Amino acid sequence: MIVVDDVHKHFGGFHAVDGASMTIQQGSITGLIGPNGAGKTTLFNVIAGVLQPTSGRVTMAGEDITGLPPHDLFHKGLLRTFQIAHEFSSMTCRENLMMVPGDQSGERLWNTWFGRKRIADEERALRAKADEVLEFLTIEHLADHKAGQVSGGQKKLLELGRTMMVDARIVFLDEVGAGVNRTLLNTIADAIVQLNKERNYTFVVIEHDMDFIGRICDPVICMAEGKVLAEGTLDDIKANEQVIEAYLGTGLKNKDMMGTQA
């Protein structure tokens, strides 16, 4: 579905992404792991159009999407979340979801004068859909709470909910578990798996929690120093000498440490 071909992203003399190539299969939940500074988030930003690549190519379903801006990719069904949730803090959780779909009738001045019924009908449909999403994510009790007042984990669930308000094809999740307690992390994992199985969402997940990665991701891709080191199951990755050295700077003698230090 997504093919990354020899992508480079340089910041002056620093090569944040240095010839990365990978394929994300449609219908998969792919984990992207690696030590801090490996280039994972920078690669996400290149794929999602936040950053222009220095060189290389990204295709989606055979279409060249290299360098397309995020709003164009949004309309193609490619969405991403961020390490720090980007909610509209003064709006309710329901309102945060309702504003996601683009090209709403209420956005046009003409319709505010002559298309009020259309606007009202759309808002009722959006409200119903938002409530369904909140219920799916088990946070329906937060519908009328200001988004800025809910917990970090609930904000991550809200970000995942935004992807459900449009026809997402592939979703890039950047450290979805950062600052999230174990109970909410399990809820997020359940939602990702359910969306994958029932709605055929494709996910790519950056995460440092190996239990989380092992539970939901196959395959797993490991990056270090801007390059792809290995791909396979999590067990394959953990047994890979290059991966172990990237994380620990040591050889196979410390292989059993990776599960706790990754």
From TrEMBL:
Cellular component GO terms held in the UniProt record: plasma membrane
Pfam families, per database record: ABC_tran (PF00005), BCA_ABC_TP_C (PF12399)
A molecular function (GO) term: ATP binding
Gene3D superfamilies: P-loop containing nucleotide triphosphate hydrolases
ABC transporter domain residues: 2-250
Keyword terms of this UniProt record: ATP-binding, Hydrolase, Nucleotide-binding, Transport
InterPro entries: AAA+_ATPase (IPR003593), ABC_AA/LPS_Transport (IPR051120), ABC_transporter-like_ATP-bd (IPR003439), ABC_transporter-like_CS (IPR017871), BCA_ABC_TP_C (IPR032823), P-loop_NTPase (IPR027417)
EC number: 3.6.3.-
Entries under CDD domains matching the protein: ABC_Mj1267_LivG_branched
Protein name per the record: Branched-chain amino acid ABC transporter ATPase
Protein species of origin: Roseovarius indicus
